[in-house]
Amino acid sequence: MTSQSGHRTGIGAWQNSGAWANPGRMAFMSARVYSAALSVADCQTRFEIAALGSAAPDITANLAELWDASTASGVTLPAQVDSANNGTISNGQIVQL
């Protein structure tokens, strides 16, 4: 995700002298970025939905972007809010569980 100031965000990697470096193996299911801090109650609800299968209403207020690995295809990880934030899978593979 590139911010207005041009910063890039990596999930599961870091930048070393401008190049992405891979820290090792990682399992990725989904990631969310919010434009405001979530309350403790909102964080608890997100955990209950994601990890425990809760049927509670999802937290969508201030959701800036969402990536879901189940929608990945080839090397593309589609962004769910704004396609300008589509991700690229580098040095990895999609494994269906």
Extract low-pLDDT stretches. none
- What is the tally of beta strands? 6
- Number of alpha- plus pi-helical segments: 1
Distance between the termini: 26 Å
Radius of gyration: 15 Å
Main sheet: strands, sense, barrel: 2 strands, antiparallel
Strand order of the largest sheet: 1-2
Helix content: 10-25%
SSE order in H/E notation?
Answer: EEEHEEE
Strand content: 15-25%
Secondary structure class reads alpha+beta
What do the pLDDT scores average to?
Answer: 80
Please state the overall shape, judged from the principal axes of the Cα atoms.
globular
Give an overview in words.
The chain is of the alpha+beta class and 97 residues long. The chain has one helix at 40-52, and strands spanning 14-16, 19-21, 30-34, 63-68, 76-77, 87-88. The strands form 3 sheets. Strands 1-2 form a two-stranded antiparallel sheet. It has a two-stranded antiparallel ribbon with strand order 3-4. The protein is globular, with a radius of gyration of 15 Å.
Main traits of this protein?
two-stranded antiparallel sheet, 6 strands, alpha+beta, single chain, about 100 residues
